[in-house]
Amino acid sequence: MDDAESLDPLDDWLDEKDSFYDPKDVPSWERLAQAGNIFKRVLKCHDSGRNPSPELVKDLIAAALMLSENADHKQLAVKVFAIALNELEELASEYPEIAQRLIGVTVALMIGSQSVIAGNAMERHKGFSKRMDPLVKANAPKAAAIERAKAIAAELWQADAAQAIRVGEMADRVYRALVSEGFTEELPGSADRVKEWIKPDAPIYARKGGRRRKTP
Q: Measured between alpha carbons, how far apart are the two ends of the chain, in Å?
């Protein structure tokens, strides 16, 4: 069997299922949720007693690939799954009297293995979330202050028709504005840190060094 021939159709099918992407491009929690939804649908169909279909196998393959954390490993898995899926379809076609049993055994094996794999992934995610939640909550007020600082600076620079306000001066203005809005606990001790917050979004003229020339 030609590996390339067996790989291409599965690639196309996975692309339709939104599972053929680089793992680093999609957050792990999002991939875990997508895989979980697919797995629940498959499990519901399996528990209903209906005859399993090749589509259930493909759904389980998609769910398994969504749990991959490495693009190279995922590509290897795609190749192996494609070969196995084609062999299963050929056997089912060659021996139709046992086709349902073959598909049923495959689905059962995949459900069992993915129950363990997905369960482990969920526990790791829970542990990570438990460690990160306090940090996220602690940083939330500061993050709000940073976003507000950027918004104030953007408004003032947009109104700066003379293009006269440099980053340092803008940081002072923004710092005072944040204090007046009640961000005292979230602010650093001076405007120097605020300067770092707003500098990446500053217009080119505002980043120029030196003091601006006074208008005669």
A: 83
